């Protein structure tokens, strides 16, 4: 078993490690895309404009209601077909494949954004209205209110929910293996199929996902604890 997982010419350790890094990078990019999209979704749902609230709600319903794998298929194969069609209009020949990493990160990011929107909306609603009203009463500019009051507290309230969204994105990254990206799931499949040692490599893949989850959960808890202490210190100093 150890020889199969070694980093030598006959081992699969290097591929597994590289695939784990790809999985982590893909999940991080997807999380950042989701953060941008989720902020827009939350703002739309909190808007006084009815059509914006409908738009935000519609986005959440679509991307939370369609299976993640189907979204990836739609973006990857549909995107490749669209790129091929546009390329043929400009004289290109043959099938043009969409970038698998970019499409995978975008698909997972848009799915993540539908969940992050709910997290940010709930975090915004958890803020005490009196703090914002007091800032407006003393003439604080909107950008200062967002910088000093809204953003720090929304981040603090959103962190527990973001930990769950991160885990979801990390596990959804396994679905991107259908596009040919050699991430952790794909590497486990390749190694298991080549060696016929299915139990070993699927167990190693599961262990890698578990390690990534445990480490990231610890990082989220530390960040949550630090933000909580920083906000308490800041509140105490103001009083």
From TrEMBL:
Keyword Transmembrane helix on this protein? yes
How does this protein sit in the membrane?
Multi-pass membrane protein
Q: Which UniProt keywords apply?
A: Amino-acid transport, Cell inner membrane, Cell membrane, Membrane, Transmembrane, Transmembrane helix, Transport
Which cellular compartments is it found in? Cell inner membrane; Cell membrane
Annotated ranges, domain ABC transmembrane type-1: 20-220
User: Which InterPro entries does the record associate with it?
Assistant: AA_ABC_transptr_permease_3TM, ABC_transp_permease_HisMQ, MetI-like, MetI-like_sf
Q: Which residues cross the membrane?
A: 68-86, 199-220
Give the top-rank taxon of the lineage listed in the UniProt record for this protein: Bacteria
Which residue windows are coiled coil? Answer: none
Q: Which NCBIfam families match?
A: HEQRo_perm_3TM
Q: Which PANTHER family match?
A: ARGININE ABC TRANSPORTER PERMEASE PROTEIN ARTQ, CATIONIC AMINO ACID TRANSPORTER, MEMBRANE COMPONENT
User: Member of which family?
Assistant: Belongs to the binding-protein-dependent transport system permease family. HisMQ subfamily.
In its UniProt entry, what is this protein called?
A: ABC transporter permease subunit
Organism (species): Pantoea leporis
């Amino acid at each position: 078993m150890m020889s199969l997982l070694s980093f030598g010419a006959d081992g699969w350790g290097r591929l597994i490690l590289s695939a784990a890094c790809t999985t982590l990078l893909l999940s991080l990019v997807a999380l950042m895309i989701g953060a941008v999209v989720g902020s827009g979704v939350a703002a739309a749902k909190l808007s006084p404009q009815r059509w914006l609230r409908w738009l935000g709600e519609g986005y959440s319903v679509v991307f939370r209601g369609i299976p993640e794998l189907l979204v990836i298929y739609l973006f990857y194969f549909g995107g490749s077909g669209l790129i091929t069609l546009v390329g043929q209009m400009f004289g290109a020949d043959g099938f043009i494949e969409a970038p698998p990493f970019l499409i995978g990160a975008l698909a997972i990011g848009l799915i993540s954004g539908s969940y992050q929107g709910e997290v940010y909306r709930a975090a915004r609603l958890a803020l005490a209205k009196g703090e914002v009203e007091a800032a407006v009463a003393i003439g604080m500019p909107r950008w200062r209110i967002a910088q000093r009051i809204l953003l720090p507290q929304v981040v603090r309230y959103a962190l527990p929910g973001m930990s769950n969204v991160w885990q979801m994105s990390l596990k959804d990254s396994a679905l991107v293996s259908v596009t040919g990206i050699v991430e952790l799931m794909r590497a486990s499949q390749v190694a298991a199929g080549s060696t016929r040692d299915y139990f070993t490599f699927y167990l190693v893949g599961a262990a890698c996902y578990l390690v990534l989850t445990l480490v990231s959960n610890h990082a989220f808890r530390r960040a949550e604890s630090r933000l909580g202490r920083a906000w308490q210190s800041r509140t105490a100093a103001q009083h």
